[in-house]
Amino acid sequence: MNHFDYKNGELFCEDIAVSDIAKEVGTPLYLYSKATLERHFKAFDSGFENLDHLTCFAVKSCSNIAVLSIFSTLGGGADIVSGGELYRALSAGMDPKRIIYSGVGKTEEELRYGLQSGILLFNVESEQELHRLNSVAAELDMRAPVAFRVNPDVDPKTHAYISTGLAKNKFGIPIREALDLYVQAEGMGNINVLGVSCHIGSQLTLISPFIETLRKLKSFVGQLADKGIAIKYLDLGGGVGITYDDEKPPHPIEYAKAIEEELAGLEVTLILEPGRVIVGNAGIMVTEVQYTKTNRGGDTEKHFVVVDAGMNDLTRPSLYGAYHSISPVKEKETPLQTVDIVGPICETGDFLAKDREFPKVEQGDLLAVESAGAYGFTMASNYNSRPRVAEVMVSGDRYYVIRQRESRESLIQGETIPDFNR
Ligand code: LLP
Predict the structure, then answer these.
(1) I need a labelling partner for 259 at 20 to 30 A (CA). Which of 27, 28, 56, 73 fits?
(2) Which of 279, 305, 340 is the last residue of a domain?
């Protein structure tokens, strides 16, 4: 459930008409509902209330510090994958003791930053990373808190680009080889082995791959115990899907109950890294129709709706062929037409929807691109020298610009024309 609803034919975010915000802030813009963010976080987190657990929001899905601060206030932590995300989480007021650091390519500088910030766990993804972390920790005279991210070789049955727990994916350490690494790490002076972690993919619509993974992890924790290695944290990653179109992902509570049952008897703190399931349907992107046109040739007649948001603002349709529901902000009773909704970028791959049945719209109409809260703004770029758009959060009948629209000047910030003759 979210707080984007039509009232008298007009889309509202909580108690404000979306068109009023667009008029004042301009388009395109990302719009988040605070009540929805809170509701989704609580719905997910409360599912695990019987278990010792920590919900670490996946910052990559929506990294605005205003959003992060809401989850921090609700007792959540952060799952980060870069020094930049660590900086964001700390700037949002997140307790470092609730921050975990995943990712295959952490640099020496990033490891140092994580250690100096006192984060809860590093999810180490290779033997070389372990050695690097040990030596950086030695330099700082510290012991690095470590979980190994194991790759369980489980098929998450999702889009190939976002499945991460198969042997052919770059992530984690093959579960069969991980035991030796734990034994090695136990003997290292500046490593504190605390956990096992994994993440098998994103936008999962089935519970079974999670359960298959958990079974493998449980058996692995047993093998560690046989070697005298006790585990304090078990991190199951993120990945619960949402409904973009007609997908039927498990309800977070159903997911939590299945995990709880499977986990019975294991004395660990469970860590979860949800992103999309919390923010995905808590945000929309609002864009304005610039032109409508029809291109004809041979047997082809193609209708286009050209809007002011492009693949640089919301890249998911172009990158993954992802479906986002799109609706006029003011309901239209006009006849349906099959259209491509496209942006201003100079690429044929620049589209928000293809062959979509859509009411006939006209210049100036506002459209809401739904389910854009996760991997929307965070994947935006300046391609075609387009300033990144504003982010706005609504709470009740008030709205707040939580990130200003970038200026033209900001586009060339940091650039210089060298004096080649000197
Ligand atoms: N933990 C780790 C280590 C991850 O790599 C991810 C997502 C998550 C947690 C959060 O997964 P979620 O709960 O959001 O599914 N850009 C793609 C999604 C990439 C996901 C990458 N990792 C998209 O737009 O669909």
Answers:
(1) 73
(2) 279
